[in-house]
Amino acid sequence: MEAYGAAGTLVAIGAGPKSLAVAAKARVLADLGLPAPRVVVIDKHGVGGNWLPLGGWTDGRHRLGTSPEKDLGFPYRGAPHRTHAAQINAGMLEYSWMAFLVAHQTYTEWIDRGRPNPHHNVWARYLEWAAARSGVDVRIGTAETVRLTDDGWNVAYRRADGTVETVDGDGLLVTGPGSSDEPLLDDPRVLSVSKFWHAVSRREIPASSRAAVIGGGETAASALDELVRHEVMSISVISPAPTIYTRGESYFENSVFSDPTGWPSLPAAERRDVIRRTDRGVFSVSVQENLLADDRINHLRGRVTRARRVGDSVHLALCNPDCTAVEHAFDLVIDATGGRPLWFLDLLDAETLDELELAIGAAPDLRNLENAIGHDLAVTGLPQPLYLPNLAGFAQGPGFPNLSCLGELSNRVLRSAVDRSSVDRSAVDRRSGRVSAPAGVR
């Protein structure tokens, strides 16, 4: 147990699967007597909030798009300390989906029912169970300010009672999609993701003759899967793709997500093509099967460039390359384009933003940050690690932004934390004249 915190403190914003995968593996390392960082997680809603109605991204009753067997330890290959990989992976089995089911005496039933993907609220219960088992320090509050310091990171967060507290860490892990309450137009006929699910929970979805769902990913898929259960005469799915793609689930596609070893060697155009075809702007197979026979659904290609209220309708301007924008009228619009990938930049103070721009050598926009993510899933060039797995898909592998390789994600983050802490301790020892061997990770 004394090894817990031996590699400093890692602060994580967002108490979802990524943070909990890192926290669980850090506990396993510590229990084996290996150096591991202390993990402190900050989240507005607590563990698994985005998989519950209170998070604003779901009503909790729709099914997970990924197999739950891709759990906190998957793919159970490699480890932060390579000579202890077998012991570490065995320890992570104690945090597996199967262990959760066995602990709740539902494993046999799940097998007999054909291993179905769980509902979102059940996945949240799994995350809560894993968090309690790991003993991770979870702080309930909204992160408000993030500041890079000489020694690491300082995060200020506001608790429900209005008080502001701070936590310092040697590294910062940012996860989550940001807010789900930002519609493209402030109008009662245009619903953000959170307003849509709030209306669903209160049974206040209005009858509609022509509805639109903007977005082609899983956020839009869940909203569409719910909307078809209500009184709507026609539903248009609006996305820039030429059709609504189904997420690839063959061995060849899945293996790229599970094992990103050769990913960085692929040409940039091929990497973006794989992500476009298999991850971004695609519906899961189960949702596609549910919608297949519903003749109310159609697809409109284009990007929404303008939204305006005209009488009782909302007019959306759709733009396609080399084409004149065309307006379509709807009486109900759900903006399900998903979260803002750069939402966390709003938390950084001016000096930290300057440091980030200096580190990547360009303005911190989406493309530049994606290109700056290193093997450890942190932004290269910063003096203190800022881990951004949600932006690591292009540079390091398509599984890091989602649930496809949480075990490899935790390996890279923790290996980096331990390596950095060993270097820091060695530097201190040299300055003090002491001679000590840094804790190895090989």
UniProtKB/TrEMBL annotation:
Its EC number is 1.14.13.59. Pathway: Siderophore biosynthesis; mycobactin biosynthesis. Keywords: FAD, Flavoprotein, Monooxygenase, NADP, Oxidoreductase. One of its GO terms (molecular function) is L-lysine 6-monooxygenase (NADPH) activity. It catalyses: L-lysine + NADPH + O2 = N(6)-hydroxy-L-lysine + NADP(+) + H2O. It is an enzyme of class 1 (oxidoreductase). Its cofactor is FAD. InterPro entries: FAD/NAD-bd_sf (IPR036188), Lys/Orn_oxygenase (IPR025700). Pfam families: Lys_Orn_oxgnase. Belongs to the lysine N(6)-hydroxylase/L-ornithine N(5)-oxygenase family. This is L-lysine N6-monooxygenase MbtG. The lineage of its organism: Bacteria, Bacillati, Actinomycetota, Actinomycetes, Mycobacteriales.
